[in-house]
Design goal:
By secondary structure, this protein is of the alpha/beta class. It has helices at 14-21, 36-42, 50-58, 77-80, 85-94, 108-121, 153-170, 181-184, 189-200, 219-222, 226-233, and strands at 3-8, 27-32, 65-71, 97-104, 144-146, 149-151, 175-180. It has a five-stranded parallel beta sheet with strand order 2-3-1-4-7. Strands 5-6 form a two-stranded antiparallel sheet. A hairpin with a 2-residue loop joins β5 (144-146) and β6. It starts with a strand and ends in an 11-residue tail after the last helix.
Length: 244
């Protein structure tokens, strides 16, 4: 069996999951290997081809299992290289990454709130509980930028849902593990860590949780326009998200 790709859309607990897995003696976690090229692409600089980036990472493998992260929406990492998700999956398979972890935060509203808070605070991670502070926002439900695209809140929810459906179809027949933020990371990241270890055929070893939730607050506290958002979602399949 080969190496591993963690697929996600950001603000899904990937860093806390990866940092626990990186403490396993058999796992080498590389984080988001395409992230350094995002700003270079926006600045109009030349960037290497996707397969070249992956090959460079592979050349530094020192442990039994190498693990990388990819934000898989077209407007995220694949778009940097002008690639489709199909092409991205194919490149990783060709480079020996044939085991996949799909990290899914099912509450898209919470995911998007975390995204919007980060846009204002630039505080992506929290390690010390003393640093966890409430930052209230007014969410513009009509204009939210994710990656290289701007859409409304409801449009993004559809993009997220379709993205996960599409990814699931592409990965059928391959070795996959689904990790949900709400069930496997939110309350105790060690649950997700142990699940992935078992998927990889590894015996979990004791690990430290290095990060805590960045927004452990009630939605009514974080969202100044909570009522506007709740009304918007009230007649949609996403209405349950305002209650969590």
């Amino acid at each position: 069996m080969g190496d591993v790709v963690i697929w996600h859309i950001g603000r899904c607990g990937s860093t806390v999951l990866g940092s626990t897995l990186n403490q396993h003696p058999a796992v080498q976690w590389e984080n988001e290997i395409f992230r350094p090229y995002v700003l270079e692409k926006r600045a109009g600089k030349h960037i290497p081809a996707m397969d070249e980036v992956i090959a460079t990472v592979k050349a530094h493998k020192t442990k039994a299992v190498q693990m990388v992260e990819v934000k898989f929406l077209k407007c995220q990492h694949p778009g940097i290289f002008g690639a489709t998700l199909e092409e991205t999956v194919a490149v990783f398979l060709a480079q020996g990454f044939d085991r996949f972890v799909v990290l899914h935060r099912t509450n898209y509203l919470r995911r998007m709130i975390s995204h919007c808070v980060v846009q204002e605070t630039e505080q992506y991670f929290v390690q010390n509980p003393k640093d966890s502070r409430l930052h209230a926002i007014t969410m513009d439900v009509n204009t939210i930028k994710v990656g290289a695209e701007t859409r409304s809140l409801l449009e993004w929810f559809e993009v997220f849902a379709e993205g996960y459906r599409h990814l699931g179809n592409l990965l059928k027949g391959h070795s996959c593990c689904l990790v949900t933020y709400e069930d496997n990371i939110q309350n105790d990241p060690r649950i997700g860590y142990a699940k992935v270890c078992r998927f990889l055929g590894l015996e979990p070893v004791p690990v430290d949780v290095l990060f805590i939730r960045t927004n452990p607050f009630q939605l009514g506290e974080i969202l100044r326009n909570y009522e506007e958002v709740a009304t918007l979602l009230a007649t949609t399949p996403y209405r349950w998200m305002v209650e969590r």
